[in-house]
Amino acid sequence: MTQPVATVVLGSDGTDAAAALATATSEFVLLHDHRDVLVPDAAAQLVAAAAGPPAADVVYADGSLAGHDRRIAKPDWSPERYRFEDFIGTPVLLRTDLVRDVGGLHADFGAAAGYDLLLRVTERARGVVHLTSVLSSGADRPRVLAPDGLRRDEVGDSAARRAVGDQLRRLGIDAAVEFEHDAQVHRIVRRLDPGVSVSLIIPTRGQAGVVWGEERVFVVEAVRSALARTAHQNVEVVVVHDAVTPPEVLAELESVAGERLVLVEYGRPFNFSEKCNIGSLHAGGDVLVLLNDDTEAHSAGWLETLVAPLVEPDVGMTGAKLLFDDGTIQFGGHLYSEPPPRKRQWRHHYHRFDPSVGRTPRDLLVNRETSGITAACAALRRDVWETVGGLNEGLPVNYNDVDLSYKVRATGHRAVWLAGCEVYHFESRTREKPQGRPEEIAAVERRWGRPVRDPYFPWPDPQPVR
Amino acid sequence: MNGHVQESDAADVRHRLLRAVDRALGAEAELARSRANNARLNSVISGLRGDLDRAADQAQRLQAARDRDAAQLAAVYSSQTWRVGRSIVGPAARVARRVRSASARATAVSRRS
Questions:
Q1: How far apart are the CA of B17 and the nearest CA of chain A, in angstroms?
Q2: A38, A305, A345, B20: most buried, per Cβ within 10 A?
Q3: What ipTM goes with this model?
């Protein structure tokens, strides 16, 4: 009778493991690091999870540090994040047939052989399941890439980078892979096809205010910075403005954006969702970028960084790292879970976190899947926008982006937050800081329920430094 | 393109379509949630029903045992052996009670004197 699981131990050299995998006749193989200590029924739990429903080809579980009670909580399957860092680590259960179909373990990747194998297997897996029970304790964080406590750049950096580069080529993604030595994570720089047309949709009423000690008309500076900090030429700017917007503001917008400007007058009471929806009807782009007027593009190539990941069909929505004017984090991805005291169930992760103090969390250094993206700066392909029906106009002020994110994910798309796309957001300078109204909360809960556990941020909320 | 655009009829139709799609998706999500809630409630109800059935079985078993015991007791009371035994043991028990109470009275008198 065929054994359900064969165990393959990964050491610092992939050679033995490659041979063991090649001869495995079991239904599954369990890859684990030679320093992992597994709980007695770890293999059985992983196999049960693979059986489903739904059936999965890859199963991984949470772990803990040896000698500590600290749980290493891992996010649910996040393909974009996995390219930046190996958060799965070991142990991991793989269906043997699939391992064989993708060519088994390539020993020439050395210490990164397991990582390379998982990149290839997960591309074709029917499902990748995360078990939230602790099935192992090990000496370190997930570390297929860095055996024996060595820094990854000392042992397998170039191989790991090559593995990611190979995956991007297989998937037809035009990008370069770099390695951040300090943070020990990859960085992927995608190139945006110049043929992709992009429409920025900016609702405004043409207000002015003071930022960094200087008076500015927000929408003008938003448009100016957005166009100045991108080399992408195929861009139009759709400004949906209230009737009260001063004519000189509109004139200045025309001088900044020229032929690329589309002005749409909006004459009804404030409804952010409706303004964006109307903007989208007058936009001609393949990609729509919702942008608040109180923003300023910060990083060079921000638009290319924001839009390029949408080339992957299952990426439905992307968002930027938003910063307050003092450099603290305004938006590091949405987090939907049972709320801690005095917080909402839908909230901005790392809100008010100061990245300049102490060590920056890896969450803020890697691209990653997230539960949602703020509509202050969000990019969607037009087909996805139309599939989900744009923004819910029943939510005129708050949580329309939460609802949009739920819709995007409900239609089988990923929402991806991009660490390398930085935009300032001078939040609430153009209107009072919105308070969630009970009827808006009830409307979102009626559709999507109350969240319990965020799939991508399974660890507690970090405390703001300031 | 430059200058103001008006909301044309075509744009109005597309706008209504966008809203309709949103509402349809929302309704689908609400339906899915209702179905999930129903499934959860059904599973709770079927669990409770199982508990109830088990409790009813248990009550039935206890009742049957009680009926059996009562029948056995009735059979014992109505048996000849029991009646003969009672006719012997009954008077002897009455004599024993009297002896016990007489001896108690005698002990009380001697303590007073």
A1: 8
A2: A305
A3: 0.85
